[in-house]
Design a protein that fits this description.
Largest sheet: 2 strands, antiparallel
GO molecular function: GTP binding
Organism: Populus tremula
Structural class: alpha+beta
Number of domains: 1
Number of strands: 4
Family: Belongs to the TRAFAC class TrmE-Era-EngA-EngB-Septin-like GTPase superfamily. AIG1/Toc34/Toc159-like paraseptin GTPase family. IAN subfamily.
CATH class: Alpha Beta
Domain AIG1-type G: 1-116
Number of helices: 3
Distance between the termini: 7 Å
Protein name: AIG1
CATH topology: Rossmann fold
Helix content: 25-40%
């Protein structure tokens, strides 16, 4: 879909493994950082398809906790990445609802939708 490539664009370097593919290659959460010229640190957490329950709900749950723990300074934005090559699916709708269930409706205030 382009989550890793989007993270690389934000960081300004190839920090995450990325390739053109309809299925994700990221299997676990990974944190990468960059420092801006003014000294501000930007942290980007690349995630697998967290709501792909074919991986098993226990594994998905552990990854969600791991991602949250990586964001020790707090979450300032949540980027939700969709491909323009495919229709918006029921799974993607369910993923958005799951984000709201996990984090509350305030998550929408921090959400940025990215189309790749």
């Amino acid at each position: 879909i382009g989550k890793s490539a989007t993270g690389n664009s934000i960081l300004g370097r190839k920090a995450f493994k990325s390739r053109a593919s309809s299925s994700g290659i990221t299997s676990t959460c990974e944190l990468q950082s960059t420092e801006l010229r003014d000294g501000q640190i930007i942290n980007v957490i690349d995630t697998p398809g967290l709501f792909d329950f074919s991986a098993g709900s226990e594994f998905v749950g552990r990854e969600i906790v791991k991602c949250i723990n990586m964001a020790k300074d707090g979450i300032h934005a949540v980027l939700v990445v969709f491909s323009v090559r495919t229709r918006f699916s029921q799974e993607e709708e369910a993923a958005l609802r799951s984000l709201q269930t996990l984090f509350g409706s305030k998550i929408l205030d921090y959400m940025i939708v990215v189309f790749t």
